[in-house]
Amino acid sequence: MLLDTQANDALAAVDRALAEKPHKEGHTFSAAAQSLCVVRDSLSAREKDDPLRRHWLGHINAVISVILAGHFPLGSVPWDEIAKARDWLADFAAAVSATPDRKG
Amino acid sequence: MKKLRQTLSETVSGFLNDWSLPRQMAGLDPLSKAAESMTSRTLRPRLEQADTVGTSICPFCAVGCGQLVYAKNGRPIHIEGDPRSPVNQGTLCPKGASTLGVLLSPQRINTVLYRAPHASDWEEKPLDWAMERIAHLTKQVRDDSFVETLPDGRVVNHTIGMGSLGGATLDNEENYLIKKLFGGGLGMVNIENQARI
Amino acid sequence: MALWDLENADCIVVMGSNMAENHPVGFRFVVEAQRRGATVIHVDPRFTRTSALANIHAPIRSGTDIAFLGGIIHHILENDLWFRDFVLAYTNIANIIENGYQDPEETGGVFSGFNADTGSYKQDTWQYKGKIVPSSISEHRVPTRDKAKGGDFEAMTEGPPPTDPTLQNPNCVYQIMRRHYARYTPEMVERVTGCSRDTFLAVANALTRNAGRERTGAFCYAVGWTHHTVGVQIIRAAAIIQGLLGNIGRPGGGILALRGHASIQGSTDIPTLYNMLPTYLPQPNVFNEHGTLQSYLDSETPTTGWWANMPKYVVSLLKAWYGESARRDNEWGYQFIPKLTGDASQLPMTLSMLDGVMKGQFILGQNPVVGAVNSDLVERGMAKLDWLVVRDFAMTETANFWQKGRLVQRGELRPDDIGTEVFFLPSSLAGEKEGTVTNTSRLVQWHDAVLEPPGDSRSDLWFIYHLGKRLKQLYADSSEPRDAGIQALTWTYPERGKRAEPDAEAVLREINGYTVADRKQIPSYLQLKDDGSTACGGWMYCGVYPADGRNLARSRIPDATGGPGSHAGWAFSWPSNRRTLYNRASADLDGKPWSERKKMVWWDEAAGSWTGNDVPDFVASKRPDYRPDWPTHPHGMDALGGDDPFIMEADGKCQLFVPSGLKDGPLPTHYEPVESPVRNAMYDQQFNPAAKLWTRPGNELHAPEDPRFPYVFTTYRLTELHCGGVISRVTPHTAELQPEAFVEISPELARELGIRHLGWTVLSTLRGDIEARAMVTERMRPFRIGDRTVHQVGMPWVFGWEGYTSGDIANVLLAITGDANTSIHSTKAVTCALRPGRLAGPGGATHAA
Asked: Span C197-211, mean pLDDT?
């Protein structure tokens, strides 16, 4: 699967979480985390010496760390932070789509 | 044949001389000389063979019973409750009393075992090889999963790509170095132990 | 409290623990107290050896502890049985709470501040009126943000919180508690718990009879209290009782946590836990105001009480970890400390493995396949890892799940499908390595290395130290900022012998702390500084190694007969070798012991200091009549009076009502367990609304009153077999004494289901099915709950497939759910199905009963 497809799948999963605002239910965030990890694993499986790919990997890892706060909240789910992470993910998806080689 | 008969009669008379019951019936104290036999005369307490004795703490629950560990040539020969300890005053429960059996368990494993991905069995490996491989795997996961900052600049400096579980059965010094290396050094946050169980 | 201090109690309640069987040697102090005349009470669903030795056994349905304890609080308040002088002076009973506070009485079972959309609380209506009360652990805290920093509330430094010593104000803690516990009558206790009214009253009377100036009582608990979604609140309920009865900080008074592993207390203090840095400093969080060291300290440091010293402890820790790389101009290395974004405890870790977030896992002397809830899910998670390192001394179910696990046995996975690279590293045991462990009474005891570890067995100290050396080498040439922390980490410890074993004493010396300039041991945390001149790995342990050659954990001088009985010369108990915390409360307001019989520490007017049979838990020279000078905006201990014993709290008072620090309410409230065969008889709210739940495939929960799962299921361990560890299953002596797994069933239920003693049974939940032979015994009794009978079954969770004794893993049946505050899993009260027979498939026949 192409990286931009993976990124857009992950974006759709995070959007679903934001739309549904699930309450102590693991399916939605689990799906988001799994699809984000597909992106991460794609990035980390390829040549990591490329500064752009390394940057993307750090970016996607940051998104995962914030999304996990929705799955495993300390207190209430920080929806405002999840929304920011969603935008960072959208930035990433757009950046990938804009590259000539959409494998990233 | 004659010789055999003689040996037998010597054994019988030896036994009669050695037998403690007649002496005890004659009124001697049954707990001292009167109880002695040829075998017991040469018996010595096992603890006398120990070349080292050290203080230990029972490895099971958190009551913290004192133990005395007796060793000979670096091998344990006896473990008992420390009579000085105000916690247990020499006593131990069934688990604590089995501590020697733990150390000497026939099911103890003394070599490094390795299971390659998808393999159906263990293989033995040198300790040094395993340590080097584990160090590389640790670095690899950390490098692939590390988050320095969020895209808005907030510092995170963590990895959630690996975790560590365990510590309640370990020493304080061990726990300290685990948290220091994994947390303070590598940036792992998923560090947990039985205390939350 | 010290274990041996139980001897001084006049009444002991063991609840949430089977102390006689699981802490047998600790139980001798209970027996001794009883010999001296104390009443011993066991409150427990099962009749065990603890019950057999108790004067009263009060059976309650699993998961109804707060109903029972709340009933005692009701009994104390309504019959005016509280220790008035103690409570008025030392607790917050007279404090006035915010007007906006609403009780579950008014709202159908939740407190004000509850947000149903998020299932969580805001704590602002629980505060003292007009104030904000900071708490001290990161995950739970209300930050220190007062008017001076743009907040809406007055700081604790500006004056004492408002109180009404006449207790008439309807929003004072006393009146709130009376309303909150009004419905916890003996009749309600009987209806909810199944314990008869008479037995309940016998317990309440025994406790209240043994309180006041002359008498004290103690509670002992274990994981029977913590393993619920309301675990913290159960302990809180006992704390309220002990506060009301004056049973804290006094001889024979207190709440003793009976912990299960040799250093489980030590691994909490010097935590291999995600949410704390050594000795209870909060782990920073990305989403809090923790971006810089200064903002972290500003928001996390309470301005009043002992915790005002926090900056000294944080900076000293950073100096211990990062040495010369910890400088003022880089915030003492603060940014090297990883920040949290969410709950990173064990339950989330299991789910993280399943989702592919987690790639590698170290398991150090733990066995989650047996000991963690939802064992099949743990196996599935580990099957997704890239690698797994297990350190233990014998094979564990966790290390060989890929070969002998349930998933493989049932044919769901073949080893070939599992890509996890697994390392088993043999570990050495106590006796073969040296170091300290901390017992359940905070006693730090050294143990010697007298034996040679066999073969490649190594201490965990060796493992972590040498792994660290290798990693430091791998990162030595990096110029990446992210690698600066591992490069800066101080990692120089003397190596000894042919195995290059790191020196455990050198590590303990670092934990104790030293001066940076001349590397002299620091004798007390009073000497720690926030200017980088001191280094200390764990401030509460400071004093354990106060000078060169003085390792007090090695000290072995018990008191002689007739001595003070605190055994101050036997090892070291943190903090400051103090045996009883908050012991200032053992003296009255004027500093005199409440009674000769119950004296512990007192004010010595001639010497101008506190003294006694224990190290006073107070500023040594602070007079009992000291009062804060409010016009000067006092900080720290200056803001606490000479009669405020609870120095770790921001106001020095025992918190009957908790304004900050709890995520699920300021007062304990009875909720049914998440899975229960009955409806909550007290409130519309069925279970703790703030409980941590993660429903997802493989972790489904049973709805209340689900007819498919009618029985209450509980787990426990055995005298002979220790926890999930294979340690006692691979030891012939102990294994022989408990040869096989079993499930305990009452004769009534056995008759109903046609189960014979020693016959096979199958236990099922939505998480999994297991089989075990039946132990039909009157130790299990059916409960009468309302107008129906509720059956309870129980099973030891200590079995697995490794070792000389084996059996199915009870934790297969349990779901991943967490206490609202601690994320501790729930094992003591779930629901299950039960039938005679065996499981289909290998090892089980389909029908033979």
From this structure: 98
In DSSP terms, C496 is beta-bridged to C501
Beta-strand ranges (E) seen in C194-253 are 217-221
Q: Report whether pLDDT(B1) > 60.
A: no
Q: Is the dihedral of CA A28, A34, A35, A37 positive or negative?
A: positive
User: Which chain A residues are Cβ-neighbours of B152 within 8 angstroms?
Assistant: 84
Q: Nearest-CA neighbor of C28 among C50, C1, C59, C51? A: C50
Task: Give me the pLDDT at residue C848, please.
Answer: 36
- Location of structure tokens 């008439």: C168
Query: For the segment B3-46, what is each residue's pLDDT rounded down to a tens digit?
Result: 666 677 777 777 777 777 777 777 777 667 777 777 777 888 88
Q: Does C175 touch chain A (CB under 8 A)?
A: no
- Classify residue C635 as exposed, middle or buried by CB count within 10 Å of its CB (0-12, 13-18, 19+): middle
In C116-193, at which residue ranges do the beta strands (DSSP E only) sit?
120-121
Interface test with A, best of C123, C350, C357 (most A CBs within 10 A): C357
Judge whether C614 and C597 are in contact, CB under 8 Å: no
H/E stretch holding B148 reads: strand B146-149
- With 90 as the cut, is the pLDDT of residue C413 above it? yes
Could you give the CA distance from residue C302 to residue C316 in angstroms, rounded to a whole number? 18
C357 to chain A: which residues are within 8 Å by CB? Answer: 33, 37, 64, 68
The whole-angstrom separation of Cα C498 and Cα C178 is 67
Q: Within 10 A of C646 (CB to CB), how many other CB atoms are there? A: 25
Total residue count of chain A as it appears in this document: 104
Q: What is the pTM of this model?
A: 0.95
Distance separating alpha carbons of residues C541 and C549, to the nearest angstrom: 16
Query: Comparing C-alpha atoms, which of B157, B147, B163, B167 is closest to residue C322?
Result: B157
Closest-approach residue (CA) in chain C for B194? C264
B190 — contact with chain A (CB < 8 Å)?
no
| Nearest 10 degrees: Cα torsion C567, C572, C575, C576 | 80
What is residue C355's three-state secondary structure?
helix
pLDDT exceeds 70 at position C8: yes
- Omega of the bond leading into C575 within 30 degrees of 0 (cis): yes
Task: Spell out the SS3 assignment of C788-827.
Answer: EEECEEEEECCCCCCCCCECCCHHHHCCCEECCCCCCECC
Q: What is the pLDDT of residue C849?
A: 35
- Separation of alpha carbons C402 and C582, rounded Å: 50
* Pairing state between β B66-72 and B75-81: antiparallel
Which residue in C272, C286, C446, C496 has the most chain B C-beta atoms within 10 A of its own C-beta, making it the best mutation to test that interface? C272
CA–CA distance, C677 with C605 (Å, rounded to integer): 60
Residue entry with tokens 């020693």 = C758
Sign, CA dihedral C70-C76-C82-C88, equals positive
* DSSP summary character for residue C491: -
- The count of residues in chain C is 849
Per the structure block, which two tokens stand in for C448?
């010697």
CB-nearest to B144 from A44, A59, A62 is: A44
What DSSP element (H or E) covers C505? helix C504-512
Rounded-to-integer distance, Cα C187 and Cα C191, Å: 6
Question: Whole-angstrom Cα distance, residue C71 to residue C204?
Answer: 8
Q: How many whole angstroms from its chain centre is CA C140?
A: 15
Lowest mean pLDDT among C150-154, C760-764, C835-839: C150-154
Higher pLDDT, C297 or A48: C297
How many angstroms separate the Cα of C530 from the Cα of each of C214, C517, C534? 44, 14, 8
Using the Cα atoms of residue C271, residue C274, residue C277 and residue C280 in order, give the sign of their dihedral: negative
Q: Which residues contact C769 (CB under 8 A, 6 or more apart)?
A: C762, C763, C812, C839
State both tokens at C96: 């006035």
Where are the alpha helices (H) located in C305-358, listed in sequence order? 310-322, 346-355
